[in-house]
Amino acid sequence: MQRTERTRIRNHPERAVPEQASEILAQGMVAHVGFVEDGIPYVIPLSYHYDKGVPESIYLHGSIRSRAMRVLASGAPVCVTVTLTDGLVYSRKAMNHSMNYRSVVLFGKGREVTDEDEKFGLFDSMVQRYFPGRMVGDDYNTPPSADLGVTALVEVAIEEWNGKRRLGPPTGPDDDDPDALGSAGVVELREV
Ligand SMILES: Cc1cc2nc3c(=O)[nH]c(=O)nc-3n(C[C@H](O)[C@H](O)[C@H](O)COP(=O)(O)OP(=O)(O)OC[C@H]3O[C@@H](n4cnc5c(N)ncnc54)[C@H](O)[C@@H]3O)c2cc1C
To answer: Using one digit for the tens of pLDDT, what is the confidence trace for 119-133?
Structure first.
């Protein structure tokens, strides 16, 4: 995946993990989807589909009446952020409180998927991503055409991305000194 000035990580460049971007998208649950309509920026939280086997796209869906779907389906530029919060970092120095995280920021453009079979295939894959092993026909019914018709599906072809990661303990000047005032450590939120 290419990177340009738009996806260069300037603050803490040593935390750039472009090679982990695919895995972060695979693990993420919520995409924060940014776009501009009539000069007004919106950032909308949405579920998404991402398949590591097809790393150049993510898929977003919603009501055909949704603003986000309407704007994205028009091919407007979109910026999507996915974040995994791994830990809360506390320090003896106020400024060194932080978070351990992994995140991806990607840029692309939307394209509406209208073919009914393609739509259903992607929705089925999305159900499998969030609920591994959940089978259409056994665990839920095949959706009727009417339901597919009122649900918009947009593919965002990824033009470029970068990943960023912070891990490890706090880095305040006294955080390794047990005799110094206060406390320091990490509240782990997930196993990394
Ligand atoms: C974790 C999560 C996952 C979601 N997944 C999906 C999904 O996969 N598909 C889907 O269609 N919807 C999903 N939603 C709901 C989604 O965030 C939007 O509310 C919905 O899609 C309508 O978007 P819209 O573009 O039409 O917003 P509009 O109705 O045009 O928004 C109008 C105003 O409300 C604000 N707004 C919109 N959404 C929210 C929100 N969630 N919280 C607070 N303010 C909001 C907007 O910023 C704007 O100011 C999800 C919400 C969450 C929190």
So the answer is: 999 999 999 999 999
